[in-house]
Design brief:
The complex is a heterodimer of chains A (about 475) and B (about 210).
Chain A (H helix, E strand, L loop, with lengths): L1 H6 L6 E5 L9 H8 L8 H7 L7 E3 L2 E2 L1 H8 L17 E3 L15 E3 L5 E14 L3 E19 L4 E10 L3 E11 L12 E7 L9 H4 L7 H4 L5 E4 L6 E3 L10 E10 L3 E8 L14 E10 L16 E3 L2 E3 L1 E16 L3 E16 L2 E12 L11 E15 L2 E13 L2 H5 L9 E13 L2 E13 H5 L6 E10 L1
Antiparallel strand pairs in A: 1-11, 2-3, 4-5, 6-7, 6-25, 7-8, 8-9, 9-10, 10-13, 11-12, 13-14, 14-15, 15-18, 16-17, 18-19, 19-20, 20-21, 21-22, 22-23, 23-24, 24-25
Chain B lengths: L5 H13 L7 E8 L7 E7 L13 E5 L2 E3 L2 E5 L2 E6 L6 E5 L7 E6 L4 E6 L3 E6 L7 E7 L4 E3 L5 E7 L2 E9 L2 E10 L5 E6 L4 E6 L3
Parallel strand pairs in B: 1-16, 3-6, 5-11
Antiparallel strand pairs in B: 1-13, 2-12, 2-14, 3-4, 6-9, 7-8, 10-11, 14-15, 16-17
The chains are: A mainly beta (about 475), B mainly beta (about 210).
Chain lengths: ~475, ~210
């Protein structure tokens, strides 16, 4: 990369800041990012529709139980004879006999009987031991307000919309998508479905805090972006970051084909805009992703049960399953970066997750590369990997103990490392112990700590490891 | 031989005069007035003397329909076996915490299956679903076969009640609402008017 050599002497480059989301105090910027949850919520509108409690589908919202996941995959309907369960009568948009007249008439549809909107409020108290500012306590009241609208619109159409307001960023659309089910006649139910819109990709569902988060924090690999690495020229003090803001956790404009096979195998294939909504990736190439999942035992992914699985049991309002789920995903993207170049990047992940009664344990590994994150500024391939685990246990049906572990490595580009700087400086290892208490089914209190056992960046400059502690109170209605 | 047992004839005549005519079971029809909902009330009669064999009845059941137990209150005689059905297209559970009895858990089971439990302990047994906390029902076990659920309009009916002296009880879930001794004498059936707001009871024989 001669261009980069012209602008910055490689010998003058040093890796200064690693602002991976989830670290509490690596930099003020990273604190801001870490406190922004951008989280999918539970949808109390469904509780109204079916006159049932949150725990029918959630262990601790937004964490879904096995039936809730089947409900989600089925387009916000219960797997079998949904009409037998709902209490509000839908508004017909055309009578059933009109189906016989198609294509000479509009295919009949359906509106939900009630307005499927719910609101939520999250408030946090955040303690951060910042190496520069010292210990700080932040009252984030509210940390976030959100409005969620999700509903099935008949047998084969559903829609989901979530918006959020945060003090720092105002109103944002979190997701807005339409789901069409059973696109291919003659195939088994839910074999081929289409999701189109601004949506999350949900790679490795057990780790995904949008649909499986009981506590507060997600994993670093979900939030990592190439632009978190700040290259600083110590001679001039000038810094430069990649303009590639792609994160796996962000919603994207995407088209996804997904479906179930034999009730236990899930596939998802999609094309997406790439990057985040914050910086439009308007290049000629679109990103591609795939997801595979297989579930052994317990309730099937389609919400049914068969002889291969032991029926779930109940405990104090919680549905407890005994299952093993394995997952794999791959993501291939390209984002425009400095000098009109493209940063081609890939991420892959595997995980295994066991639910055994009150225990929920998951282990995963994610790795990826960015081939040219700094464009013509500095050459070098950025690779990253993460080993992570999550364990949760229902002490009582309303009290969950949570422990997450992860180690994240982002190897600095070879050219920079050869120049003698920053080897291993991006590495972080942390523990996240937490307690989740359901004060009510729709009122959740969370205490979660972030304890670093390794924080290479701070160590390299003689600073203590940053630790954080959150107290969260959330209500949805 | 003509004067052999004049005293015996006189004794038999006395017996015929004072012996009760064989009591024919009657029907009790009643109306309950209360300030609130009456449909969850259970009315039952406890005989002052031990009653005979329980009147025949079909197997009582509670179904699970649209995430509700139906009926939400069921009265049964001690020793009755209650069937718990599941008509919903999702898994349900049936359990009862410790209360009048030691409690039980029938497990989680799918649609079309049913499971049963025999209730021997008197009192109100709470029935819950471990996976749908909003669902509840009460099985009220009473020491008599003469019981009835009160309808939405406050009416109730108990068939096959032998005339005699009874204690009339009204219970609502876990609370005794009313208890009074009454005499049901005659073979024409009775109408009861019970006003829980004033605690007044009127018993009328239909033969008068």
């Amino acid at each position: 990369m001669a261009d980069s050599a012209n602008r910055f002497s490689l010998a003058a480059l040093t890796l200064a800041v690693m602002g991976i989301v989830g670290t509490g105090a690596a930099s003020p910027a990273s604190v801001t990012r870490s406190s922004h949850p951008n989280v999918l919520a539970d949808i109390p509108a469904f509780a109204r529709k079916y006159r049932t409690g949150c725990s029918t589908c959630h262990t601790a919202a937004p964490k879904l139980n096995v039936l809730g996941e089947a409900f989600r995959l089925n387009g916000y309907k219960f797997p079998e004879n949904d009409a037998l369960l709902r209490r509000d009568e839908p508004v017909p948009l055309g009578a059933d006999p009109w189906k016989d007249l198609w294509p000479r008439a509009i295919w009949p549809g359906e509106l939900p009987g009630g307005v499927p909107i719910a609101v939520g409020l999250r408030s946090d108290i955040q303690y951060t031991r910042d190496p520069d500012a010292g210990a700080t306590w932040d009252f984030l009241f509210p940390e976030e307000l959100y409005i969620v609208a999700g509903s099935s619109l008949g047998q084969s159409v559903s829609a989901y919309l979530s918006t959020e307001w945060t003090p720092g960023e105002g109103v944002e659309v979190d997701q807005a998508k339409v789901e069409l089910q059973d696109l291919v006649p003659g195939l088994p139910a839910r074999a081929v479905n289409l999701w189109i819109g601004f949506q999350k990709l949900y790679p490795l569902t057990f780790a995904d805090r949008y649909i499986d988060g009981a506590a507060r924090q997600g994993f670093m690999w979900q939030s990592f972006r190439a632009s978190d690495l700040d290259l600083v020229n110590p001679a001039t003090g000038e810094s430069v970051r990649s303009s590639n803001d792609f994160r796996l956790r962000h919603s994207q404009a995407a088209i996804e084909i997904n479906g179930l096979g034999a009730g236990r195998f899930y596939y998802g294939l999609g094309v997406s805009q790439g990057a985040s909504g914050l910086s439009r990736d308007n290049n000629a190439r679109k990103d591609f992703f795939y997801k595979l999942r297989y579930k052994l035992g317990g309730l099937r992914l389609d919400g049914r049960y068969d002889s291969a699985g032991v029926l779930p049991e109940g405990a104090g309002g919680q549905l407890l399953d005994k299952t093993l789920t394995v997952e794999h995903f791959g993501y291939f993207g390209a984002e425009p970066v400095e000098g009109g170049r493209q940063d081609t990047h890939q991420s892959f992940g595997v995980s295994a997750r066991a639910r055994y009664g009150r225990a929920d344990l998951g282990l995963g590994f994610v790795w990826g590369t960015h081939e040219n994150p700094w464009g013509d500024i500095a050459a070098g391939e950025l690779s990253h990997s993460s080993l992570f685990a999550k364990g949760e246990y229902l002490v009582y049906p309303w009290l969950i103990g949570s422990l997450k572990f992860e180690t994240f490595d982002a190897d600095v580009p070879t050219e920079i490392r050869v120049a003698g700087y920053s080897e291993g400086s991006a590495d972080q290892t942390r523990l996240l112990p937490g307690v989740i208490a359901l004060l009510r089914q729709n009122v959740r209190a969370v205490v979660e700590a972030e304890l670093f056992t390794e924080h290479a960046l701070n160590a390299s400059v003689g600073k203590p490891r940053p630790h954080s502690l959150w107290f969260r109170l959330e209500v949805a209605y | 031989m003509k004067r052999t047992f004049p005293w015996l004839a006189a004794f038999l005549a006395q017996l015929l005069i004072h012996a009760p005519i064989a009591a024919q079971p009657v029907t009790i029809e009643g109306v309950v007035r209360a300030s609130g909902r009456v449909a969850d009330l259970v009315v039952y009669l406890i005989s002052a003397t031990p009653f005979g064999p329980p009147k025949p009845q079909t197997t009582p059941f509670i179904d699970q329909v649209r995430l509700r137990f139906v009926p939400a209150v069921l009265a049964v005689s001690a020793g009755s076996t209650v069937e718990f059905r599941n008509s919903d297209p999702i898994l349900h559970n049936v359990f009862s915490p410790e209360g009048p009895g030691p409690g039980f858990d029938l497990g989680t089971y799918p649609r079309t299956e049913s499971r049963s439990h025999t209730f021997t302990e008197l009192g109100s047994h709470v029935i819950l679903c471990h996976v749908h906390p909003e669902m509840y029902a009460y099985v009220i076990v009473v020491p008599t076969p003469y019981h009835a659920m009160v309808n939405e309009d406050g009416t109730f009916r108990i068939d096959g009640v032998p005339p005699g002296r009874y204690t009339l009880n009204v219970v609502e879930r876990r609370q005794n609402r009313f208890s009074r001794n009454i005499a049901l004498e005659g073979n024409d059936g009775f109408n009861l008017l019970l006003d829980l707001t004033t605690d007044e009871l009127e018993v009328r024989s239909r033969g008068r």
